[in-house]
Write a structure and sequence with these properties.
Layout lengths: L1 E2 L5 H5 L3 E4 L13 H12 L3 E4 L5 H10 L5 E3 L4 E6 L4 E6 L3 H5 L2 H14 L4 E2 L10 E4 L9 H13 L3 E4 L3 E5 L5 H13 L3 H4 L3 E5 L5 H6 L3 E3 L16 E2 L4 H14 L3
Parallel strand pairs: 1-13, 2-3, 2-11, 11-12, 12-13
Antiparallel strand pairs: 4-5, 5-6, 7-8, 8-10, 9-10
Length: 265
């Protein structure tokens, strides 16, 4: 990984937008710092597309799409996107899988979650679980004492043994039925909302993230950036980001934003 300060001005001048993770990328120690939220407003005001790509639940995404200075939000690790159509004054909700289809599997997913809580002491359902539509989130550090890497691995093994797709974030292990991920839905969102074919224009976007569930995005975007705390996960990532910030979390996000804004013409 190169220091983000080495991001070429020529690349920055050609950018159209910023995709970014939320937890420990836009936030810092569980809060949104003033620096990152001010940077987001500045990017929005400068005309860039700004899109959070998060594992957080549908309930949070409804709020984010309505209240934040963003072009939309991809949530639950790619299960959905929400976009506020300001001309129509209407929130558009798009799902990768029909919610009725997932409803049939909800009890099965819950039973697998219960199995994890029984077999891996110290785990708990994420506090935002009631606001989720498609997945189950197992907390390993947000509201519980941090578990070891071996315990996190056990959580993943139980999910996989039951045919569940799972991803590790900086705070949760998310499990779901389906073949989607953050990148799948980001491409759909870009085409349907932004009118952009990402396969042809991936170099016009920066992605900023911090953990293993961001790896598909790191691999796909040539101008991917990890905030400094990505260094805690390098042993778990085969495809690290191209660049790394000098600051962690939301302060690192602001660092990237400042580089982009200072090179805008």
């Amino acid at each position: 990984m190169k220091p983000v300060s080495e991001l070429s001005p020529n690349v920055v001048e050609g950018l159209s937008g910023i995709f970014f993770d939320i937890d420990d990328t836009f936030t810092l120690e569980g809060k949104i710092p003033a620096a990152s939220f001010a940077a987001l407003w500045a990017l929005h005001g400068a005309g860039y597309y700004t899109v959070p790509i998060t594992g957080r639940p549908a309930g949070w995404c409804d709020h984010i799409a309505r209240m934040w200075p963003v072009s939309g939000v991809v949530g639950e690790n790619g299960a959905l996107y929400f976009h506020l159509d300001e001309k129509k004054g209407k929130l558009v909700r798009r799902f990768f899988i029909d919610p009725d289809e997932i409803e049939k599997k909800r009890e099965r997913l819950k039973s697998i979650g219960d199995e994890i809580l029984e077999k891996v002491p110290g785990t708990a359902y994420a506090s935002d679980q009631p606001f989720r539509l498609f997945d189950v989130a197992i907390d390993f550090t947000e509201d519980v004492p941090r578990l070891s890497k071996s315990d996190i691995q056990k959580i993943c093994e139980i999910f996989k043994a039951n045919g569940v797709t799972c991803k590790v974030s900086s705070i949760h292990v998310n499990g779901w039925f389906g073949d989607y991920d953050k990148l799948n839905m980001t491409k759909i969102f870009s085409q349907e909302v932004l009118g952009v074919d990402l396969d042809q224009n991936r170099d016009r976007f920066v992605f900023i993230g911090d953990s293993p569930n961001d790896e598909p995005m790191f691999r796909y975007f040539p101008n991917s950036v990890g905030v400094y705390n990505i260094t805690n996960f390098l042993d778990d990532i085969e495809n690290p980001p191209a660049y790394v910030t000098g600051s962690p979390g939301g302060e690192g996000f602001a660092e990237v934003a400042n580089i982009i804004l200072s090179n805008k013409k």
